[in-house]
Amino acid sequence: MKAYFISFFYAVVVLSAFCLVARAQNGKPPVVVIPGITGSQLVNGETGKTVWFSLNLGNELGDDLRLPMFPDLAQNRDTIVAKDIIRKIELPGILRVFPDTHVYDRGIEALVAAGYAEATWENPRAEDSFYVFAYDWRRDNVESARLLIEKIEAVKTRLDRPDLKFDLVAHSMGGMIARYAAMYGKTDLPAGDKKPNPTWAGARHIERLLLFGTPSEGSFSAFETLVRGYRIGRGFLTFDRMSKEDVFTIPALYQLMPYGESALVLDDQLKPISVDLYDPANWRKYGWGALGNPKFPARLTDAAQTENHRSGRGTKTVDDQIHAQTTRAQAEEFLRAVLRHALKFHQALSVRTPTSPIETFIYGGNCEDTLSGVVLIRNDEKGTWETLTAPRGIKTAAGRKISKEQMKKAIYAVGDGRVSVRSLLLGSATFRAGATTTQPGFPVKSTSFSCVQHVNLLNHPKIREQFLTILGKPVEAKPIN
């Protein structure tokens, strides 16, 4: 009888393990859709007012988006929260004559057509489902990666599925968040001069990683935004914009700046020069961003007053008071901290790993001129520097003429208009006779390129067909430890 019960016990254990494996095979793994920067709707958590994307015609300042500026980045919080990813931008009123802008809705529609049902983090389901990861894209990407893992862990707990793994479909900066989550889990960046060491702590939650236009080596579009500000549309059709003072406060933008050999800086003869984008001294020297304006603190005060007038509040909010009291010294201390943190973030993602426990697939565009460098020009008469982020004809200090076409060739590369092929592959790309030969800088299952712009990668029919095929492939059953 004793032998019988022992045999029965082992049979139950084996059968339970088999059921766990079989259950993992029954249906497709759940998918998490991770948008890029500006791809999540942000609302005021107290009033419910949408602050991004607002569709306010001619909106001059996105003042509500400014974060406080303390060197401890985790301290810089406000009342804004992420509500949903931006699926489609529908133009109001008479502007309905213009076509709507599809952001992530067509990618989501493709998932639904393929048999996936949308679940929520609060009401989860396992197989054949997808979740959207809306996050505050202004904040530190390490913090967003931690939040992603926490949400996944909460779903697994609610479903009582410790074996469950997710496929991550990540666009643009969302891919950097996904990669960090996979490589380091919920671990913060190392303190001091300690080197990052990938533990792949997030791999136990992730089956496959699909990256769409992810700037693994950064993007000069982010640097240009920090230097000049950001707007959507032009002229009368400017729907929303962020001033240089607004974007100065956003840590995630600094983490999107070019890194390594992709951080190409040229002199007026189009020769590479050594300029560290992560050195705050260079931001002062070249007048980059909001700190290049000597009236920077006053602009913060004016912005707070403008927002109060526009909203009808009449008095300053706590956030307005913080901005109005920000000194130049505090802003410079914040800049040092945010640049140092951004550099460490890039170093963490750039660790070369010969193998990976996660299958990674890369999708990108390869037919658009993409900003991949800047030119610095010295004005000796004024004693100032000009940073060129668009090609134009110039005359060097020695009197030599540089044509617009020459500059275009020097500062543009092949990409999707925002992210170069080189950055997409972490610095490993060569070009021969118009063709692209690629060797990714980290383990990748496959790469796929199409003639498509950055914002349309998930909407492109060919790419949709490819990634749905990958998601539909059965996952090899693995024993549960």
From TrEMBL:
Q: Which GO terms describe its molecular function?
A: O-acyltransferase activity
InterPro entries, A to Z: AB_hydrolase_fold, LACT/PDAT_acylTrfase
Record flagged with keyword Iron-sulfur: no
Question: Which named protein is this?
Answer: Lecithin:cholesterol acyltransferase
Q: Which Gene3D superfamilies match?
A: alpha/beta hydrolase (3.40.50.1820)
Residues of the signal peptide: 1-24
Pfam families from the UniProt entry: LCAT
Q: Could you tell me the Gene Ontology terms of the biological process aspect for this record?
A: lipid metabolic process
Which lineage ranks, top first, belong to the organism behind this chain? Bacteria, Pseudomonadati, Acidobacteriota, Blastocatellia, Blastocatellales
Which keywords has UniProt assigned to this entry? Signal
